[in-house]
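In response to reviewer comment 3 from the previous cycle, which asked for concrete evidence that the modeling workflow produces usable outputs, we include below a single protein chain processed end to end. The sequence was submitted unchanged, and the resulting structure tokens are shown without manual editing.
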Amino acid sequence: MYTIGETAKIVGLSTYTLRYYEQEKIITPSRKTSGERYYNEEHLNWLRFVIRLKATQMPLAQIRKYAELFSEGDHTAAQRLELLQAHQAFIQEQLQRLMEVNSELDYKITNYEQLIANSAIQKNV
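The workflow returned the following structure tokens.
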């Protein structure tokens, strides 16, 4: 069991973000009888997954929808699959765009390297 502070440190989020995710129903921590939040390994794994989804630009609304579907049970598996497949398609489009830009950067960098190398040769002549 981890406190909110320990959990924040472990997963690299602020306690504010953890409380916000709870408010947005993205995560539901367990509570002690005193009302204090605590998190277990399952919570940590879920938060790590949420962080990865956010890193790939999945909107919080979609993450919330996924969390809601998950909490409803196995009968929502098809909906969760569809949501993840749509996000994967988005990621693949992003990767394609990044590869195209990377190719353009390679071209520009090569041209500048040649220009600089030719300028250096001209100065040495």
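The mean pLDDT is 93. We consider this sufficient to address the reviewer's concern, and the full set will be provided in the supplementary archive.
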